[in-house]
Every structure is written in C-alpha cells, then in structure tokens.
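Retro notes, item 3 of 5
We never archived the inputs for the P-hydroxybenzoic acid complex last cycle. Fixing that now. Sequence and ligand:
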Amino acid sequence: MSENSNRVDVGIVGAGPAGLMTALLLKRRGISAAVVERRSHAEIHRTQRAGILEAPTVDMLVDADVDSRVLTAGHEHEGTVLSFDGVQHRIDFQKLVGRSVWLYPQNEVFHDLATAWIREGGQIHWSVTDVEVHGVDSHEPRITFFDADGKPGQIDAELIVGADGSRSMCRRLIPEDVRTDYFTSYPFAWFGILCEAPPTAPELIYANSEVGFALISQRNASVQRMYFQCDPDTDPEDWSEQAIFDHIQHVLGGPEAVALKRGPIIEKTVLPFRSYVCDPMTYGRLALAGDAAHTVPPTGAKGLNLAFSDVRALVPRVEEFINGVKEASGTMSPVPVSTEPLQRYSRTALDRVWKAQNFSYWVTNLLHRQPDEGEFAQRRRRGEFDAITGSVHGQAYFADSYTGWSTS
Ligand code: PHB
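Structure as it came back at the time:
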C-alpha cells in the first residue's frame, strides 16, 4: 500500500480551471474530491492563456464564493471592435444582446480557484509524475502517481474526471471503437506577445487586412497582449520588436486608423491552431471536461468558457451518479450503478461544444488569410465582413455568439 493512499468520491486529473472548478463545486454539494496535477502551481500561474470571460463564466466564479477578483481586477467590455482594411466597426454587445464579457486572464482564474481549494483544505498533489488511471470500466476506478518527492500515491474513487488539458492522457482511456475524434487543422498560427504599454484602445480590436489577422488585447493598465497571424513554423526570435509592431500597425491600417501603443516586449510565443472534439466525453466511470475533450482556435475566446460550461453541465450529473452509488452501497446485495447521468452530461456538453466549434471556426476564417488564396477569396471575405457589420442582424449574430448565447 502506498503512503499517499486514500479514498474520495471523485478523483480529478488536472488542476486547470476545469478540474479545480469541478472540485470546488462538488465540495459545495458535499461530494469529496482530490486533484492531481503534473505541473507546478507556479508554472500554471505563469502560462499565458486567453483572457475573455462570458457572463455565465463570471457568474460561476462569483457564485462559487471563491473570492475571485474578477469583478475588481477584471474589466467589463460592453463591446468589441472589428477592423477590415483599417476601417473599424464597433459591435455593441450590450445594445445588441444585453450582455457584456469580462477581460480577466485565465491564469488569474486558475490562481483564484487554486487559492480557494487550498484555503478550504482541498486535497491536491502538484508536480506529480507517472499519472495513471485504472479501472474506469470497473466499479473501483483509481489514480496512481508519484508525488513531488517521488513517493507513490493512490486515489481510490467512485468516478474519475479527466480535466488534463489538450494533450489528455485520460481521453485515451475511451476505447478507440467507442470514441470518435473529430478534428481540423489550420495552415497558420498566432504569434503572441506581451508588451509593457498601456492599452491601445478601451476595447479589443480584431483586425484583418490583405496580410492577415491581428488582435489587440490587454492585460492591465500597463501590459498589453497582442497577436498576429503567422506561419506555424515561425521562430519568434526571427522577429524584432520593431518588425512586430510595424506589422501589427499595418494590419490595423496605419497610425491614422489606430495608433498602436508600443513598449518593451516581455514575452513572444507561437500558438498552434487546431479544432478538436472527442465524442463521447464519458466512458464507464470516467468523464472528460475542458480541453481534454475539445480544443478550439483562440479567435472566438471560447476555450475557458467551454470548460466552465462543461463543469456547469457535469456537476449535477456527478451528484446524481454519486447519490446512486451511495444508495446502492446501502443495499444488502450490491446493484450495478447506472452511468446514464454521465452519458446525459456528454450529450448536453457536446451540443454547446459544437456551437462553439462553429463560431470559433467561422470567426477564424472570417478574419484570417489562407496562405495560398487569391484575390477572389479576400474580396469575398470583405463581402462577408460587410454583411456582418452592416446589418443589425449580422452584428447580433456575432454579439450573441461571442458573449455566450442567450441559452446555455
Ligand atoms: C487574450 O487576451 O489573450 C485573448 C482575447 C481574445 C481572444 C483571444 C485571446 O479571442
């Protein structure tokens, strides 16, 4: 028997926002959970991810009572700017659909959740190695691992939640004859920078020009986050500060259109693009949540929001399943516990996942240039752009999708 052996209701692989939010919401319902994570707390906190939260995501953070700083340190954005060939169009989310989004970086969401989980005495093992999940098709699933000191550990649970990110190990536990992997790739990537300068504009600017896409986002009053479309094989070191800013400025349509605020670049990375869905998101006593089950390109800012909508759908179904386990264990002769609530979770979650996949794919193609396309494609794109920005219905379609749809 290993030193770290213990029994909980739910074992969770991955301490990103999906895993930690699941752990916290289960605890609120009297269901015990333990979390294992391969990376260290500091490494996850350092990693830059997208920064836009839909209103239901903000509500979850507030309602979870985790002392999130989303409403104090985050910024409400009532609209966003779409720019084509230097001409800007504001999409007024509030006027169109009565909702806003919040700019609050994902690594801060992680920090809020991790702090709350630790403060509440939640079990978590950081920097573990050799994580393995066993017996998801039995009634005794378990996680084994080696902890940060190299000691073997084990978590025995009724159910395993795989929230272990886009390179998920848990996903591979769904047998190939049960699982369908849907994916598409893109012939471009994003070059992302962090720079020390105040925001260029009060709201985000998503821009397209004949040289492709750029996005001006923010982190706080003195740091900006920006991206531009690049070849997936780009070496960030090949781009000087001056070349980066000149290129982004060009996509924005020159300084007369928007005067880019420049400052020292403190981070440069190339982010690959991919769309992926795993169907079903559950198998036996395993349920996947967040990037482990699906990846979207970052253009629509849907990644974290989808992870939270998974958790919203998952937690009541886990409660139903665990109640079933507890009832069955009180009977004289154990009866098999139905995993049907988990299958219902998968169906509900996938409906939203595909809506988000569609939006992310559509907005990516609306705003990026394919490497080998001709002039027809760019002029057609301009026509599509005008159809969206020039009509209240087109604008409302964008606003409704970007802010997370009126129905969950
Ligand atoms: C970001 O701030 O990192 C960000 C914002 C919006 C996106 C993607 C990334 O669509």
